Amino acid sequence: MVRRAEETPGFPWRQQRAGDHVVDIFDEVEEDLRAERAQQLLKRYGGLIVAVLVVIVAGVAGWEGWRWYQARQDAAAAVEFLTAMNLATPTAAGATSAANRTVAIAAFGQIAKSGPEGYATLARLRDAALKADAGDLPGATVLWDQVAADGSADPLLRDLATLSWAQHYIDTGDPGLLEGRLKVLASPDNPWRTLAEEQLALLDLRQGKTDQAKTTLRRLAQDVTAPNGVRGRASGLLSRLGG
Questions:
Q1: For residue 152, which of 51, 106, 117, 146 sits 20 to 30 Å off, Cα-Cα?
Q2: Checking phi first, is residue 8 left (phi over 0); if not, alpha (psi -120 to 50) or beta?
Q3: How far apart are CA 168 and CA 174, in angstroms?
Q4: How far apart (Å, rounded) are the C-alpha atoms in residues 237 and 128?
């Protein structure tokens, strides 16, 4: 009896290849279906996909453009600020000339109005210091209050504005108001703590609270975390007060 080739023991590869051929056909059909579905989706949503890609690219380009613009603005403000600082720098005699002070005040005022946020805050503080040195304490107070009340400003600079105000009013300002603001700055975690405590000691002396002032001054004189200037002034004042 003659056997068919596919039944012949010597030809098992015929059955394997037939099976492979069937699998290949199904794979091809599935790939065709996927390609057809992809084409249909592309026809249906192609415009939307392109629009999304355009928006993404435009967004990235816009962000990079904004960063470039901001960097350029910051660089320009830095130059203006340093120029004003040079004008405000005291001469060898230890004072800023009236002419330079006037120009510097105007420059800082312009930066405060139109400069980037950080430089605007620094400009207000420097402007206030110049006005205070020139005897315009009310004008300086307006600027210190602006910085202290500016919620977008760095807390460190806001507290510096309050401290600067207190230093200029320590001899004449309302004791209750001064004490209230300085005690906030004298909290243990505040970077201006030792300077605020120094002002509180001066305020105590002004009100005749000598013993309380001495206690604060002793603490400052022994505080290794305090700036050398604060420790030195505290020690000197203690000596004049008899320890």
A1: 106
A2: beta
A3: 12
A4: 28
The predicted model scores a pTM of 0.66
Contact 124, 118 (CB under 8 A): no
Residues 6+ apart with CB under 8 A from 233: 198
* Contact call for residues 150 and 121 (beta carbons, < 8 A): yes
d(CA 215, CA 144): 30
The DSSP string of 102-164 is HHHHHHHHHHHHHS-HHHHHHHHHHHHHHHHHTT-HHHHHHHHHHHHT-TTS-HHHHHHHHHH
Per-position pLDDT tens, the chain of length 243: 444 444 444 444 344 444 444 445 445 445 555 555 656 655 665 555 555 555 555 555 554 554 654 566 566 666 777 777 777 776 655 566 778 888 888 888 888 888 888 889 989 999 999 999 889 999 999 999 999 999 999 999 999 999 999 999 999 999 999 999 999 999 999 999 999 999 999 999 999 999 999 999 999 999 999 999 999 999 999 999 987
Q: What is the distance, to the nearest Å, from the Cα of residue 92 to the centroid of all Cα atoms in its chain?
A: 35
Identity at 24, one-letter amino acid code = D
